Amino acid sequence: MPASRDFEEMWRDLAPVGRSASSGGYYRQPWASAETELRAWFVEQCAARGLTVETDGIGNQVAWWGDGEGPGVLTGSHLDSVLDGGAYDGPLGVVSALAALDALRDRGVTPARPIGIGVFVEEEGSRFGRACLGSRLVTGATTWDQAKELTDRDGVFLADAIAGAGLDPSAGLLSLDRVGTFVELHVEQGRDLVDRDVAVGLASEIWPHGRWRFDFAGQANHAGTTRMEDRHDPMLTYAMTALAANKQARLAGQRATFGRLAVEPNGTNAVPSLVTAWLDARASSDDALASLVAEVQRQADDRAGRDGTSLVVTPESVSGSVVFDADLAARLAALGGWPVIPTQAGHDAGILSAAGISTAMVFVRNPTGISHSPDEHAGTADCLAGVEALADVLAELAGSADLA
After folding, report:
1. Cα–Cα 20 to 30 A to 1, which of 157, 193, 236, 315?
2. Mind telling me which PANTHER family this protein's record contains (predicted)?
3. At a CB cut-off of 8 Å and minimum separation 6, what does 383 contact?
4. For 252-301, how does the pLDDT look when each residue is reduced to its tens digit (9 = 90+)?
5. Which of 293, 256, 255, 317 is closest to 127 using CA atoms?
C-alpha cells in the first residue's frame, strides 16, 4: 500500500544522516548539523502533504491536518540521538506519524478533530544533560531562565547553540492549547514484546528515573613516586561507587548505570585530582528510586572517608513516575488486542502526561531489546504494523466515522 512505500522511502532518506562511518551509530546532536538537516527534512515531508510546519524559538515543530472542532490529537516524537546511538529511537515515531497520516488519507478518513505531527528537541539530553528539554520547556516543567545557562561538553551555552542553529528563543515556544491527547510511537527499548511474540504494544507507565553528577575530589600526585598508602585517589572512590551502584540495583531489582566519566588532569602518569561521574538510576517507584540513590551515595561517602577524598552529589535531571491513563490505554489496546506494558525509558510522552495532557504510547517490537546502540533495530514488517496501529489509534481518537 502507498503508506508502506512512503514509510520505506522516508526511512531510506534518513538512514545516512548523522551516521558514523566507523561504528554505524548515529550522532544527531540537537542544534548541530545532522539534527538541523533532519528538521529541514521534516518541513519538506509536511509540505509534500500540504501541511505547514510551525517551528518555535528553540526548534520544536508541529504541523496540523484537518479543520475539525475541539482539541486535537498530537503524535510524533524526536529526531535527536544519544552519542553513537541507534536509528530507531525517536525518528521511528516521526516517520510512522507521517506514514500513519498517509494511511488515514488512503482510507478516506476525514478526522473530526485535527491531528498534529510534532517533533520535540533535545529529548535524549545527550548534549545539555537535561532529558526531554524541548517538551519540558513547552510544558513549563523547566523555565528558560533555568535552561539558558546549561552548557555542553565543550562549554557552549544552550542559548548560544540555539542561536547558532539560526533560532531565536525570544520568538516563543509552541503552544499546547490545541492538544487534547498526545500519542507517541516508539521502538520498544527492551524485550517485553519479544517475549510475548507480538509486534505492537501500549504503555502503562514510565518508571521514575534521573541523572546525578558525582564529583569525587582528591589530590593530584605522581603515579610513580607516591606510595599507595599516601594517596588521596578519587578514582578509587569512584570505582567502588560504580560497583556499589551495580550491586544495590541488582539486589533491589532496579537499574543503576555509570556511563559517563570525566577525569582531571586525565594523565596516564598522574593520580587524578577530580573524577566526575554521572549516575543514571531508574526504579519501579519514586520511593525505590530515592532509596537506591541514597544507598549508593551513602556507600560512596563511606569510601571517600577511607580514601581521604570528598564527594558532592548533584541531581541534574530527575523525572518522577508516570502512570498513563489506564482507561485510555485499555480503549486503544482493544483496537488490536495489543498488550499494555511498562517501560523503564523516559519519553516526551511522560512530560506531557505529567503536565495534565491525556497521553498514550505505542511500542514497536525490538527483536534484540538493544537500544541506545548502533545495534538497535526493528524489522520492517513490525514497523509497518506499528504504522497501521498508530493510524487506527489516531482515527479512534480523532473521532473518524470508521472507528468511532
Report:
1. 193
2. ALLANTOATE AMIDOHYDROLASE, ALLANTOATE DEIMINASE-RELATED
3. 7, 11, 92, 96, 364
4. 999 999 999 999 999 999 999 999 999 999 999 999 999 999 999 999 99
5. 317
